[in-house]
Amino acid sequence: MNTTVAMNITKSEKSRISEIDFNNLAFGSVFTDHMFFCDYVDGAWQQPQIAPYGPISIDPSAKVFHYGQAVFEGMKAFKDDEGATWLFRPEENWERINKSSDRLAIPEFPKEYFFDGLKTLLHLDNEWIKSGDGNSLYIRPFVIATQSGVSASPSDRYRFMIICAPAQAYYSGEVSVLFAEKYSRAADGGVGFAKAAGNYASQFYPTNLAKEKGYQQIVWTDASTHEYLEEAGTMNVFFRVGNTLLTAPNNDRILDGITRKSIIQLAKDAGIDVQVRRVSVSEIVTAATSGELKEIFGAGTAAVVVPFKSFGYQEKDYDLPSIEDSYASKFKKALKDIQYNRASDPHGWRYEVK
Amino acid sequence: MNTTVAMNITKSEKSRISEIDFNNLAFGSVFTDHMFFCDYVDGAWQQPQIAPYGPISIDPSAKVFHYGQAVFEGMKAFKDDEGATWLFRPEENWERINKSSDRLAIPEFPKEYFFDGLKTLLHLDNEWIKSGDGNSLYIRPFVIATQSGVSASPSDRYRFMIICAPAQAYYSGEVSVLFAEKYSRAADGGVGFAKAAGNYASQFYPTNLAKEKGYQQIVWTDASTHEYLEEAGTMNVFFRVGNTLLTAPNNDRILDGITRKSIIQLAKDAGIDVQVRRVSVSEIVTAATSGELKEIFGAGTAAVVVPFKSFGYQEKDYDLPSIEDSYASKFKKALKDIQYNRASDPHGWRYEVK
Ligand SMILES: Cc1ncc(COP(=O)(O)O)c(C=O)c1O
Ligand SMILES: Cc1ncc(COP(=O)(O)O)c(C=O)c1O
């Protein structure tokens, strides 16, 4: 292993791995033997540490509890058939967590700490990464504000952590989505583009309402007019009208998804007409009615690509056709082939952990 | 003391109170000897507990860290010259924390638990409440999502807590505010009306930018047009034009402040023309230029009433006159006289803790 950052490592005495049923994993519920953490104190990130995974001790007045000063990332490690371990565009995650941190007034985390921490952790817990299609290790870097005190101002202490959860292929079942008409996820000039903790809890209640009506997820629209389609709770969204692929442009409300930008590139590589522009609810409803709307799918690290079965808007449901050679299945396969080191990697997206 | 809820109480062995310099308290940084907490498990709030104030142990995958599922309240206890302890409109805080919880998909907290917990805690830590003008005990009820697991869905475990910090009069110095032109605090259809943790961290970065320009706080405008003035970071805002008092109406972006609604009532009682309606930036700029704008002040539990010295908008600063018999000082005195049991209480806002 090629690391340079000094780290304080305490290994777990006995691995828990034999207790885990790797064929029955609920997403993000079982964690590996170790965790990585690094504290920001007196204006500097201190020496990083790795310790056995377990509870942390934190003051009840810590700012993360009161003011939601916290950001996170989501990434995956894959094992190929020769036993090598791969990440997918990990520099993007490092850059993005720092973009999120900037917006939340959290100090940026140094690149070497991020990568050396990640590599050392994946080295120690390598057995937890299973080969085989669909298997992966979900990796969750995050930062929380740890200063004690209930005044509403940025913390002067933080903890950066990485925890890891083995994951199987993500079968979400059939997904019907609801286009948002009243609730919103993010404001212009707000923090929607950041993976800020508070962006997620605010979606739970409207999503519960949608679930009661039989939908699995919401596709958010712009908060000002609800006329333009933006993204889902943890996925960006693509629309195929005829053979044209549409997706909303990045702005300060939408997460700049790594799966999204990879799919845009793969679509260009395949000569597909891909348009990154505002997508209005009305054009999608019109295309659904005329039969021109072929697919809608979500794209994100956890689920890779999720085709939607139907969407609801203004008390009406619109079914999507089930088509062969869908873009969704094409991109899902292409992404996974790169992630599992089964195909060539023309854009240099794979990153070997060694 | 008049309580009915069974509680598990562990008293601290030795009070820390003799170590505290009550004449030099930074807001919200020193906590009393005890804390109240109650866990939500298996669909029910369990038996409440009081224990010595101290760190809690929590899994690094707890949902509060990742998804910001957390809400809070802020209230104060006052001691009158006879040694009796008073709260100000505490039912409003209980109702509001549950409104916030609903929006964040957190289960509501029962009224008897809230009040019996609060009373028992204030009884145990009564010495920490100092009499004398400006002295108070700041009380922070809050709820955090404690379920382990990094899937973005509502937690099935929560902890409700109350912690308390002795406070002195809040001298903020002279406050210049900046009217928001680009950043925003809350979206239509979002969670701005809730005391949701994530609403606060998202203000830190824009507030830092404002501070670099010499302002202490931001007055937020509506996210869609930035044409209407809404509220400050932790205070509602009032404008006095001539002798008319203006404040924005409640909507889903603005916190329904208890100080705000008390001031509206006091203004009505005093025969002041108070208009609860949208207040445009342009009318305030016009009134400032013509000399009709007499005052702008913030209103909130922590600071009670804070007169603003000037405001900045589009790279220009507008000074506010310093006037005698300001509404700000009138309402501040009236509120404090009720809070400290020095004046009659026609609306029944005082609540004795006994
Ligand atoms: C709000 C949101 N949109 C989109 C995505 C997809 O981004 P990525 O492809 O980088 O995983 C995520 C998360 O992963 C997300 O949280
Ligand atoms: C965003 C916001 N607005 C206004 C207020 C004032 O409300 P109250 O008068 O109930 O304290 C607060 C907090 O206390 C707040 O957090």
Automatic annotation (TrEMBL), chains A, B:
It comes from the Bacteria. Its EC number is 2.6.1.42. CDD domains: BCAT_beta_family. One of its GO terms (molecular function) is L-isoleucine-2-oxoglutarate transaminase activity. Pathway: Amino-acid biosynthesis; L-isoleucine biosynthesis; L-isoleucine from 2-oxobutanoate: step 4/4; Amino-acid biosynthesis; L-leucine biosynthesis; L-leucine from 3-methyl-2-oxobutanoate: step 4/4; Amino-acid biosynthesis; L-valine biosynthesis; L-valine from pyruvate: step 4/4. It catalyses: L-isoleucine + 2-oxoglutarate = (S)-3-methyl-2-oxopentanoate + L-glutamate; L-leucine + 2-oxoglutarate = 4-methyl-2-oxopentanoate + L-glutamate; L-valine + 2-oxoglutarate = 3-methyl-2-oxobutanoate + L-glutamate. Transmembrane segments: none annotated. Gene3D superfamilies: 3.30.470.10, D-amino Acid Aminotransferase, subunit A, domain 2. One of its GO terms (biological process) is isoleucine biosynthetic process. Its cofactor is pyridoxal 5'-phosphate. The modification N6-(pyridoxal phosphate)lysine is found at residue 195. Keywords: Amino-acid biosynthesis, Aminotransferase, Branched-chain amino acid biosynthesis, Pyridoxal phosphate, Transferase. Belongs to the class-IV pyridoxal-phosphate-dependent aminotransferase family. NCBIfam families: ilvE_II, PRK13357.1. Acts on leucine, isoleucine and valine. This is Branched-chain-amino-acid aminotransferase. It comes from Dokdonia pacifica.
